[in-house]
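Feature request, filed as a ticket because there's no other form

It would be nice if the structure record came with a short human-readable summary line next to the tokens. Right now we just get the raw output. Example of a typical job, pasted below so the devs can see what we mean:
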Amino acid sequence: GAAAAAGGGSGGAADGALYEADSKIVQAWTDHRDDPDYSPTNVVWLRGAFGESALSYTWKYMMQRDVLHEQLREIAQNILRQLYPRVSVKKIVPSWKEQGVFLHCASPEAALRVTRMSLDEIHARTPLSAYVVQGVPFVEDFVTTVPSRVLIAYYRGHKERLTHEQLFVEFRQFGILQRIDLSDSRTEAKITFRNQADATAAKNCLHQKLFDDGTKTLCVRYVEMRYWDRLLTLARNPRVAVVLAALGLTIFTIAVVTPLRNYFVTQRLLIGHHESIQALRELGSTYVWNHTTRTERALRAAFAKPPTAVTVVTGDEGTKKSDVLRKVLHRRMFSIRIDCTDADSVQDFIDVLETAISFRPSFKSLSFVRQYTDTALLALGNKSQQGLSESKEKQLDTVLRTLSNALFATSIRYPSALRAQGSKYQHPVIVFDNYERLLDSLETQSDADAVRANMLLEILVKWSEQVVERGSAHIVFVNDSTSAEERLKSYPQLRGRLQCISVRDLSRREAARYLTANVAYFAQRADARGVVRDAATRAQLDDVLDTLGGRIDDLELFVARAQVHDADAAPRDVVRTLVDEETRSLIARGFGTKKLFTDKLLSSDAPSLDGWTQYQLWKVMTALCDAHRVVKPIGAARMPALEYDDVVLGTLGGSEAALAKL
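Raw output as currently delivered:
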């Protein structure tokens, strides 16, 4: 095998050379005076062969020698495989803690050839470098001695003075130098490299190098590192750096960041929910802000009791359920409203949640610290894509846990304090408004987003159940459809801990009273009790109620339009104008160019956009019209309706998603 490695040959000879790797490994440096073929220029120092630190070497040397030898044998085989048949290797001398090996070649030419070869395939974790040895290295395996990036150089047995120029020329070939310090007598020098691997290469290649025709011998050794230098050297190990960085961030988070966050969130709870001046101007003229509705009474009654269940507020769009909640929460201590309307991703939701509860310092404000740490770890060799940055789920869990701690502390501390001051304690209320839109947005993007949406809801459900079980706060979810309510009911944690409040349209009597009080045409023709007695005016009022029903949004829009018109303008004309505008909007949105109007409009294979097709829209509209012809109009004893199963399975071909989008 050795002969084949030296001179080339067949593939079988190459395999023999690899099987002889064990015989080429020498565990200790031998006496070169007994080796007549030894020459320093035949030896190559191969730096970075192991990619191990001194700490790893010490552990393996003391506890795992079998593993150490097996790893060395594998590396030796890789070296021989890479060099064969171009270079003859007589033996391999490892230096574990210096992270390299000495290759004894057959000739100086072979050694020089190694330094010019590409060595990337020998080891993948660290880059390799090869240097021709110019002296006689001293290889030792002292467990307690570790390499240093600071070297001591002097001439053995001579008081010869050293110079900066001479030392720079000799040592600079191995790496960048930070400084060279000469002693007062200038017979000894301290050379500091920028990194340890360069210092190791210089020490192994220049130790006992002969100068002036062999009359002077240069000796190079490590400087014993101080305690602080040892820590710095240890910290440069990528694995140790990851642990230290994680430990430092953890201590900083526990000692500084977490107390600050708890303080700001607690202060936010004490302030409570207050609508801005601009919001009050917008809400001040609305129906729910000036009238006490059934929904408002139900919410106030629920919030007056200790929390025992998660509350779900469900109502169609236009029922003003969010405005009712804002009215109930206004100027209420220990209450927070999280508006999820503009949250299109999990990160958006986290940002909205942080802002709503005054979670400071936020993850975004600290992101530069984690990015800097991740970049530094990547430069040190950490190949984890995650680094130390927290995942979205971890961030959400941290924010909710901080809010939970603040709520629990508030429920323990402030009830007795407020009663002592003669004030009434108000149970905390946390509202997640329009959260269903966030889940719908995530589920329609990709499968991964759908999984993340489910994970988001699971975290919220688990957190809500724990908060309610502790009696810390009322947790309220506000959504537009019963599907979100059914989704919450599907979680086992909420069985028996879910109360639902449905927001309905105004009754016909409430709607008539509202129109009579706010529309000049009806107000001028009503009696002192606000009741319209005139038959013609009553017919006008009935026509408006039959068309608009009790939806608050539509009633407020009608009132605003009626106030613009002349007081004698017929309400029927105002309603007809609104219907015409909505008709044109429906045509444009459902059948216009925005929906890619084609010849296949009324065919079952019409193009699908936004989850539904023009064909499905047309079928649902015609079905509703047919139902309206046989059932009494809106506002009467019965309302026109379609069976859910008939629409989904018949009209829409089994697509519940299309019905939800329509």
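Something like this underneath would help us a lot:
The first helix runs from residue 2 to 7.
The chain has a mean pLDDT of 79.
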